[in-house]
Write a structure and sequence with these properties.
Elements (H helix, E strand, L loop, with lengths): L12 H8 L3 H4 L10 H7 L10 H4 L18 H13 L11 E2 L2 H7 L32 E2 L2 H8 L10 E2 L4 E11 L5 E10 L5 E8 L6 E4 L1 E2 L10 E2 L1 E4 L1 H7 L4 E7 L24 E4 L2 H9 L3 E4 L5 E4 L8 E7 L2 E9 L7 E8 L7 H4 L19 H4 L21 E6 L2 E9 L6 E10 L1 E2 L7 E3 L4 H4 L6 E3 L6
Parallel strand pairs: 1-10, 7-11, 12-20
Antiparallel strand pairs: 2-5, 3-4, 4-5, 4-11, 5-6, 6-7, 6-10, 8-9, 12-14, 13-15, 15-16, 16-17, 18-19, 19-20, 21-22, 22-23
């Protein structure tokens, strides 16, 4: 067997960082691992898959310099034990900064009122202090810890609290700076300031609500606004700007708290699987994973997302023709339009359009003029046999827009000239108002002369996986 050198850790550090998210400076030992926050280190493992669920925790002992016995069969409890060991060894409160994070504190103070609901049991996984899996840190890569000497400057002069944690049968006891927010008769929500910040230098505070049957005992998380407007707007924490901290500094008090840190062992909860047929309504947020954009770039396109950190919001006023994602390759442009439908149902609707320069594919090949739309908002790949039968792929919605809620398994294929664009929307378990979008760009090959007027997928795994639509009629292209 001949071995061929493909590179060293130093030469491939940038590539490894792009794939895994691990800082290249850490890989090349230019930056010590201890200088990276716990939340960011957890985010590196958020997309990792293991054969045994316990190995999600056991494989992380090295990067946190902790030791604990391996007990196969304990399931998700292994990750809880890992977090217990981390807080004993690492003084970093970013370990609590996971899950849904409200990045605009003005929304909190504008919508938190007497109608706000603290919890209805649907988000039991997110209301504990500890995460149930590294997957919960998928959006925590930009969170960093605040040094004790810098905490006062970030918070307007507040002293840094050297927190100690005591595990009890009722929860975890510690001391935290609390800010009360009264928003109705007998309703008070607390902000617990943590020693960590986001990429913009805003202090992160947990949203705590007290248990009615136990004084000083809290759950984490709160609905912002009415529970269904927008649906299920549930957040665990909020980012506080410097201006907001200046307003709150006078009302901060260091208090003893007891926070539920894991699911009660006497109550067995079964995680609810994400429904295959989500409501897909607006307002909502849509995130395009980084690795999806990387695959689009490998296909020769430069993606442009209309939002920060690959996340764009669809509000009540976002038009259906809003270009949320634009893919460019030379003179070829594909636009994915995502917005709110004009019907009363507030449905999320999607269309795909494309243009090609005069130097590219001829208009005769597509049936459309050059530099014009190559696909109508309702045009999509017709399932095998449907075109011959003269039937549409699926019943249309009541209004003339393509509702994502009508797509089978949240997936649909579109044709743009010689390109295929497959869109797959998936729901989040912890946020019913957030969806992920997978985008796959492929090519369409014209069939033989005997079967002219038809196109076939290239026989590649990327284009045929999870798809039963291998042939479609060219009459799906609208000039």
């Amino acid at each position: 067997m001949e071995w061929r050198l493909i590179g060293t850790k130093a030469s491939l550090a940038d590539l490894v960082e792009e794939i895994t998210g691990i800082d290249s400076a850490v890989l090349t030992h230019e930056k010590p691992l201890d200088a990276v926050s716990v939340a960011r280190r957890m985010s590196w493992a958020s997309k990792r898959q293991t054969t045994r669920i316990e190995d999600k925790a056991y494989s992380l002992m090295g990067i946190f310099s902790v030791n604990m016995p391996t007990i196969y069969g304990e399931g998700g409890n292994a990750f809880v034990r890992l977090q217990e060991e981390i807080i004993r060894q690492v003084p970093d409160q970013s370990i609590f900064a996971w899950g849904p994070l409200l990045r605009d504190d003005t929304i909190l103070y504008r919508t938190l009122d007497s109608n706000s609901v603290s919890d209805d049991g649907r988000y039991w996984q997110s209301r504990s202090l500890f995460a149930w899996s590294p997957d919960a840190f998928v959006n925590s890569g930009g969170i960093s810890s605040i040094a004790p000497e810098a905490f006062g400057e970030r918070t307007g002069g507040l002293p840094f609290v050297l927190a100690e944690y005591t595990v009890t049968s009722h929860g975890m006891r510690t001391r935290l700076p609390l800010v009360p927010i009264e928003h109705g008769s007998g309703k008070t929500t607390f902000l617990a300031l943590l020693g960590c910040e986001d990429v913009d230098g805003r202090v992160i505070a947990l949203l705590l609500y007290p248990q009615l049957d136990a004084a000083g005992r809290f759950y984490v998380g709160h609905y912002i606004g009415r529970p269904q407007v927008p649906p299920n707007s549930y957040f665990r924490a909020v980012c506080l700007s410097r201006a907001r901290m200046a307003e709150l500094v006078g009302s901060v008090a260091i208090s003893d708290v007891c926070i539920v840190y894991r699911a009660a062992p006497t109550v067995r909860h079964v995680p609810r699987a994400t429904p295959s047929q989500s409501s897909f309504r607006c307002p909502c947020e849509i995130v395009i994973p980084t690795w999806i954009l990387a695959n689009v770039q490998k296909a020769g396109f430069t993606p442009s997302v209309a939002g920060e950190e690959n996340v764009f919001a669809v509000t009540e006023t976002t038009p259906w023709h809003h270009a949320a994602l634009v893919l460019r390759s030379g003179g070829e442009v594909i636009r994915v339009h995502v917005g709110k439908c004009q019907c009363r149902g507030r449905f999320l609707c999607v269309s795909v359009t494309g243009t090609k320069s005069a130097g590219g594919m001829s208009s005769a090949a597509t049936g459309a003029p050059r530099s014009e739309s190559l696909v109508d908002p309702l045009s999509s790949i017709v399932p095998r046999g449907a075109a011959l039968a003269g039937k549409s792929a699926s019943p249309l919605a009541r209004c003339p827009a393509d509702h994502v809620a009508t797509w089978e398994n949240g997936a649909k294929d579109f044709v743009c000239g010689s390109r295929t664009v497959r869109l797959v929307f998936r729901s989040w378990m912890t946020r019913a108002d957030m969806y992920s979008l997978d985008v796959t760009v492929g090519i369409v090959l014209e069939a033989s002369e005997e079967d002219s007027g038809r196109f076939v997928y290239p026989r590649s795994r990327a284009l045929t996986e999870n798809s039963d639509m291998s042939v479609f009629s060219s009459n799906t292209l609208v000039a």
